[in-house]
Amino acid sequence: MDLELEDLENTIQDDDDDNVQLTSAELIEMMEEVWVNEKFAPEILPHKQEVVDCVLGQISYMEKNLETLPSTDFKKGIHQLEVDRIRFLVASYLRHRLEKIETYVLHILKEEEQRGEREEELYLTEAEQQFAIKYKQDLEQHFENATNFYPGLPFEDWKSHIVAPNMNSFVFLKAKTAVEGVVIDPSRDDDEVADLTVGSQMILSYNSVTDLVKKGDVQLI
Amino acid sequence: MFCEKAHVLIKELSRNRDALPPYNTDLLNEINTEVKQLITQNQEDAQISEDSRVMNHASYLPTVKIRHAAIKRNIRCILAYHYNRLKCLRNMRWQFGSILPPDVKSNLSQSEIEWFSKYSSNLVQYMRSIGDEGINLAVDLKPPKSLYIEVRCLTDYGQFELNDGSVLLLKENSRHYLPRSECEELIRQGVLEHVV
Fold first, then answer.
1. What is the value of ipTM here, to two decimals?
2. Which end of chain A, N or C, is less packed with Cβ atoms under 10 Å?
C-alpha cells in the first residue's frame, strides 16, 4: 500500500496549494483516520467535509491523469486500483454517516437543533441535514398512513421513545497524544482514572472518551 | 385476548428477517377493527363511570386502563411492523438501485411504494450534492481487492457496454474477465455471479 502511494506521488504532483500543505499520502491517511473513527463510534461525529472534498478533488485529478496513460501501461492498472480504494474509503465513510442518520434520525435532529441554539458547530453537513429532515418527514408520513384508520389515536407516542445510540458501548482506541486523568465511568463516584500514553491501546467506554475522539487526541481502532 | 393478532403480525415479521412478504392488509385491518372496538368500549365505560361517580358506584377505571394499554400495544406493533418493513426496503434500495424488481413491488402497500420513491429521490439528491459532480455511494460496497474479477453470467442479459467503449455480449453461462467497478451492480442484481 505504501509503495503504491509513493508511486502515485511520482506520477501525480500535489495539487494542494491551500494554506494547509498536505501531501496526498497525508491526506489519505487523514481520510482513513476519519473513516475508522466514524465506523466505530456509536454516535455520529462532527462532519469532515473539508477532508472529503479534498480527497474527492484528488480522485478526479488522479483519474484525469490516468486517462492520459496508454492502456497498455502496466502502472495504469495499479493506479486505477488505488483510485478505486480511495473512492471506497470516501463512499464507505459517507455511507456510515447516512446509516447513522437514518437510524437515529430524531435523536440527531434534536441534538443538531440544540447545537444550533447554543451556536456550536453543527455535526451534519448541509446536505446531510436536508437528507435527515426529509427522511424524518417521509417516515412520519408513512407512520401516519399506517395509523390514520382512527383519528386522534395516541400514535405520536413513538416519538417519546427515541432511538438513541448507546454511548456506553465499549470502543478500542489508540492514544495519539498523552492524556492524563481520563475518568472511567463518570456515573460512579469512585473516580477511577486512566492515563493514556502516546501509542497505548485501550478498551474504554465510549462516553468517557467522546471529547478526545472529537478533538483527535485518540484514534478508534 | 387482546393484542393476539398484533402478536401474529410481529411473529410474521421475525420469521422473515431479510425478506419482504406480502403486505398483510387483512391482518392489519383486523387489528384496526380491534383498536376501534376497544376505543368505543372505553368511551362508553368512561361515560358510565362518569355518570356513576355521581351516584357513588364502583368505577370502571381499571378496565379502561387495561384496554388503553392494549390499544397502545397494538399501535406499537403496527408501527414496528411498518418500520421494519421500511428498513428492509431501504436495504433493497441499496441493493437493487432505484428500480425494484416486480416481485418485490407487488408485495408492497401503496404507502410503502410512495415512501420508496421519496427515499430514492432523497438519496439521489444527497449523492448529487457531494463534491463537485456528486458520487454514487451505491457502488464500491465492498473494499476492492483486485481491479478485474472473473464473472459468470446467470441470465441472457444482452449487450453490455464498458466504459472504454467496447461492447460484449452477456450470454447465459458465459464467463468474462471484467473491471470490478463496472460489473458490481450487475452482480448485485443477480445478472452476473462472481467466480471465486
1. 0.76
2. N
